[in-house]
Amino acid sequence: MVFTTALNFVRSRGPDEFWRKRKIFKLAAHFIGRRRNCYSIAIRNVHRALVYATKGRQLKKEDMANLWETRVRAGCEQHDIPYDTFKEGLTRCDILLNRKVLSELACWEPYTFKALTDVARRRAIDDGLKGATSSNDIDRILTRGSLNKT
Amino acid sequence: MSSLKRVQQWATFARIWHIYNAAWQNPFHSSELIKKYLMGMYKPIYHPMNDCGDHVIVINSKEIALPGDEWKKRVYFHHTGYPGGATWTLAWELHQKDPTMIMKKAVYNSMDGNLQRRYTMQRLHIFPDENVPKEFLGNVTNEIKQLRPMPKRLDCYPEKDVKEFPKVIDYPEDYVIR
Fold first, then answer.
1. Domains identified in chain B and CATH numbers
2. What average pLDDT does the structure give for chain A?
């Protein structure tokens, strides 16, 4: 709620019924029907809406995390590397990108994402992680492990 | 927008047709796989409000394999809405009535119940056998790999191959093969 003057906010806490109710009605301004006009109904719905808003702040984060993971999994599947192997391979290469950035790369920068899967696959094969299949693209990538071996 | 970018966008958002052979597959595990293609969750551009789902043709739904004794134990519930209108149908009965129904319900139940679910289901085409209309088959560009490989039965091999297959022993003359 926006108070254009500090004076109005001071009033809205006070004993004056009009200003006290006005604060609630302002929050209920976008409701439909009697919810926005009758105080006793409006206050109930405002309380409910504030509860939803509180819960929603956490839910939004979880939903976004789920979406990012779905996208990264889809990208990994296209390049034939399991998600867990991909993440572990990147971590061992000290490429510490989070799921948000990885999903954006998978969506908007598919070639960059493919390079990342190649790096992770090279590392996974060198370290003997499960689920990584060899391909010609990773021959040009060197890791510390592959240097030690040869 | 250059013509290359335009074509790239068409290619990205074009609907793809997949085909899945349900013979000898567990419908409840397959439904998780099919759902992924129906909703477009296998694309990195996936978003719940982004219309990027594909079409899936399921063939041979008559030949699905339910695990264990589920043909006898799994029950499908239906209510007509009238008093006493509840019916419980066993899986084998439902399969006899409509060989596509178990597969359809498995996919339907694997998705979250939201407004999009019924529209997503419209992109699923199930056929009890391999008779798929020509105009459907012409669209197909991808085959979804079966969850379990289908072994070839002995009676499907030509008789010549069976006879010429190398043997470890010869059966004794008086051995009775049942």
1. 11-164 (3.90.1180.10)
2. 88
Question: Going by DSSP bridges, is the β-strand pair B75-79/B86-90 parallel, antiparallel, or unpaired?
Answer: antiparallel
Q: What is the pLDDT of residues A96-146, one digit of tens each?
A: 999 999 999 999 999 999 999 999 998 898 888 888 887 777 777 777 666
For B58, the enclosing helix (H) or strand (E) is strand B55-59
List the one residue out of B128, B124, B139 whose CA is nearest residue B35: B124
97-116 of A, contacting B, C-beta below 8 A:
103, 106-107, 110, 113
Q: Does ipTM come in above 0.85? A: no
Predicted confidence (pLDDT) per residue in B100-120, tens digit: 999 999 999 999 999 999 999
Which chain B positions have a beta carbon within 8 Å of A106's beta carbon? 44
Determine phi and psi for B31, rounding to 5 degrees. -65, -35
**Closest CA in chain B for residue A72:** B44
Question: What distances in angstroms separate CA B134 from CA B15, B59, B91, B131, B175, one per listed residue?
Answer: 18, 13, 31, 9, 52
Dig out the tokens for B169 from the structure.
């022993």
DSSP labels, A10-75: HHHHSS-HHHHHHHHHHHTTT--THHHH-HHHHHHHHHHHHHHHHHHHHHHHHHHHHHHHHHHHHH
Phi, psi of A32 (to 5 degrees): -115, 140
CA–CA–CA angle A70, A75, A79 (5° rounding): 145
**B24's tokens:** 């000898």
Contact B42/A103, CB-based, under 8 Å? Answer: no
